[in-house]
Amino acid sequence: MDSLLIKGGVPLHGEVTISGAKNAVLPIMAATLLTSGKCVIRRVPDLSDVRFMAQILKSLGAEVKVDGDTVTVRAAKLNPIGDYDLIRKMRGSICILGPLLGRQRHAKVSLPGGCVIGTRPIDLHLKGMRDLGTKITIESGYIDAKAKRLIGADIFLGGRAGPTVLGTANVMMAAVLAEGVTTIESAACEPEVVDLAFFLSKMGAKIVGAGSPTITITGVKDLAGVEHEVIPDRIEAATFAIAAAATNGEITIHGARPDHMHAVLDKLKDAGVKIERKGLALIVKRGSRLKPIDVTTLPYSGFPTDVQAQMMVLMALTPGLGIITERIFESRFMHVSELARLGADVSIEGPSAIVKGGHPLSGAPVMASDLRASAALVIAGMAAKGTTQVSRIYHLDRGYEKIDQKLASLGARIQRVDQE
Ligand code: UD1
């Protein structure tokens, strides 16, 4: 199993280009199941989650071709039953439910697997499908969803922690081929939902309001194959920005969408990080002094939960007291104990992490627990004195394209090693 060996203390310098967004490409790949036409998706990041999704589409009968960062899918004929084990392994695979139901009124998929960042129910996805007229049974680990007709409905998708991103995507994908009008209230407003709506609209779907809490979809009879370029990954861009600040470096980030990153850029500025726009690029460097901040994770356009762990590292390096409150996934603090091995002083109080910053970090062997926690450990390792070994980096490979190569090109002393 691979691990990363990082020799810390080197400021990052240079230029990096952001890849396509993982959280946009996964539902868009699923949406290709809605048509028998050819779909060409560009700026697809090379990630294990993307390869997984390609395998899932193949297991459903679609032809999938990967050529560099372009993925071509043609789902001429489909079978309704997904490969149990493939789907179980990746949470994002739940978004094949909506397209399968939309296209053939039947989907049988395994319940997606658990996840260390907290309980991740799918009750809202199922509620949305039921509201559209689907009969759902759960048996032997499978969700069996069948509808004689899908009929447009008013659907409220607000949960305990606010809207659901993939739930909104799923219901939208079923509703585009339903009869009549569907209104999703308390819809997720994330840019990835907007990108999916853009893709579906190009296919011929009628969608109004994506990016706002009310999305209205007027069902159509069929959809056509299209070409699409995926939006850049705002979480990857935020991760690099934090890495530059944490290592006291200065980097230029190309290809990001700052308009998708307001909450993160604003917090970084509050923290004393200098952010400059130069044309379409972002220049990020640490200011003369870091300042303690408070962060609360919220649905978009609030601060993303997917950047919480990385931000904790910057806060751990900042003299003074900072607080992170996690409002999306209550147990998403698995990185705290690993950061403690490097010398970070963080304590958990209910949904909040109290960060007593300013203690010097020093390298240690640490273990990644989930995707964004892994990114946080890599940043901490680069900011720490000495050597850090991050094991279980398959989590990192799920969501960051060639992160070790990109960091090495910025001067990081980072090496992938095969650990017995
Ligand atoms: C997506 C992202 C993930 C990100 C998360 C929140 C993808 C592939 N993943 O995950 O990176 O961290 O959004 O921004 O896009 N909930 C329910 N019932 C449901 C569904 C969700 O109660 O049926 C709850 C969840 O437990 C959580 C909250 O709603 O507390 C938000 O989860 P959700 O937006 O659904 O996350 P995902 O779409 O799975």
Describe the structure.
- The chain has 420 residues and is an alpha+beta fold.
- The protein has 14 helices and 23 strands.
- The strands form six sheets. The chain has a four-stranded mixed beta sheet, with helices on one face.
- Helix 1 runs parallel beside helix 7, helix 8 (234-246) packs parallel to helix 10 and helix 10 (308-316) packs parallel to helix 12 (371-383).
- The termini are close together.
- The model has no long low-confidence stretch (mean pLDDT 95).
- The structure holds uridine-diphosphate-N-acetylglucosamine.
- Uridine-diphosphate-N-acetylglucosamine binds next to helix 1, helix 5 and helix 6.
Topology:
Blueprint: E1 2-7, E2 13-17, H1 22-31, E3 38-42, H2 48-59, E4 63-67, E5 70-74, H3 84-89, H4 97-104, E6 106-110, H5 123-131, E7 135-139, E8 142-146, E9 154-156, H6 165-175, E10 181-185, H7 191-203, E11 206-208, E12 214-218, E13 227-229, H8 234-246, E14 250-254, H9 262-270, E15 273-278, E16 281-286, E17 294-296, H10 308-316, E18 320-325, H11 335-341, E19 345-349, E20 352-357, E21 365-367, H12 371-383, E22 387-391, H13 394-399, H14 403-409, E23 413-418
Helix pairs in contact: 1-2, 1-7, 4-6, 5-6, 6-7, 8-10, 8-12, 10-12
Uridine-diphosphate-N-acetylglucosamine binds next to helix 1, helix 5 and helix 6.
